[in-house]
């Protein structure tokens, strides 16, 4: 921060521009309260958008997680958990395949696989 003067301002701006940092203009003293209020309002708006997005995501996951209406067994298994286990299995499969060597059109290597 510096006292405003055209000559000193130009020199300081040249020095600041030579670095990779950012410059920020500070408003006049009588405008600071308005700027603080404006920034506080934008922060509150961002928090509201965040909370609405979070609640919407929770609702969407609850809808997605509802049990299949054709489920005859009555097991209370989470759909999200089923997908999570499926993705874990697929990830393990591809990690194992990435450790194998490809020879012509065949993968060669050792791996462990459950019998069932």
Brief account:
The chain has 3 helices and 2 strands.
What does this molecule look like?
The protein has 116 residues and is mainly alpha-helical. It has two domains: 1-64, no CATH class; 70-98. It has three helices and two strands, in the order αααββ. The protein has a two-stranded antiparallel sheet. β1 and β2 (106-108) form a beta hairpin. The N and C termini lie far apart (71 Å). The mean pLDDT is 82.
What fraction of the residues are assigned to beta strands by DSSP? 5-15%
Please, what is the oligomeric state? single chain
Q: Structural class, judged by helices and strands?
A: mainly alpha
The rounded Rg comes to 30 Å
Tell me the domain tally.
Answer: 2
Main sheet record: 2 strands, antiparallel
Low-confidence stretches: none
Helices and strands, in order, run as HHHEE
End-to-end gap: 71 Å
Range of helix content: 55-70%
Record field, number of beta strands: 2
The helix tally amounts to 3
Question: Strand arrangement, largest sheet?
Answer: 1-2
Can you tell me the overall shape?
A: elongated
On the 0 to 100 scale, the average pLDDT is 82
